[in-house]
Amino acid sequence: MKSRLTRLGALALASAFGVSLALAQSPKPAAAPSGPQPIKLDLIPLQAPWTKVCQKDASGAKEFCRTIRAFGQAADQPPTLAMAIDSLSGEDKRIVRMQLPEGLLIRPGFRLLLEKLEPIDGRYSICAGGSCFAEAEVTGSAIAALKKVSIASVVVRNQVGAEVTFNVPMHDFAAAFDGPPVDPKKIEEQNKALQDQLEKKGKDLREQIEKTQPPVAAAPSPSASSTPAPKPSK
Fold first, then answer.
1. What domains are there in the chain, each with its CATH number?
2. Using CA atoms, how far apart are residues 66 and 53, in angstroms rounded to an integer?
3. Which residue, 132, 134, 138, 153, could crosslink 127 as a Cys pair with Cβ 3.0–4.6 Å?
4. Buried residues in 91-117 as b, exposed as e (16+ CB within 10 A)
5. What is the pLDDT of residues 65-88, one digit of tens each?
């Protein structure tokens, strides 16, 4: 089941959004703490709906579907995390995939916390292009919980060993997961709109920086009336 979902889900989360992820740095405390302090980040959706895309497997007998959404810390910032749930028709087990920012410890993997369920352990599969990709196999009970909860917490550890919790809002997930897939053209339009928004933000930021910098004085040009140096005597 897992290998079939991996093969059918070859479209990476990064290509779905076309942007790298960003992890905000926690502010430095005035006094050094006794140990790594936990960090909690409440994320917001960067796309209006969850997006569901489907395709037939190689035999044409089963349908593979991915329900995906990107989340960030602010609407005008790059995504912090992307979550996708992959399913294959007729199978109870599904794969939850994460695209996470780099700079996190790989060895402990991640934990998915859902209300009234035991923590679900996941592992990283690869890091590339400024992001790390992780996955966990879940059953129908976990999917049912994802449909009901308002928040799903993704727990990881950063390079200094501090626990980082991403609180991911799950509203509208059930409607998208159980509903029909969207037109691929609509996905392209959503991705382009997100990319344009991030590019505009970057352009505005560069212009603000340029306005605060003092103008560079032009180098003085040689005076036309300056006396040429005398020729050496023979």
1. 2-17+37-181 (2.60.40.1880)
2. 5
3. 132
4. eeebbbbbbbbeebbeeebbbbbbeee
5. 999 999 999 988 889 999 999 999
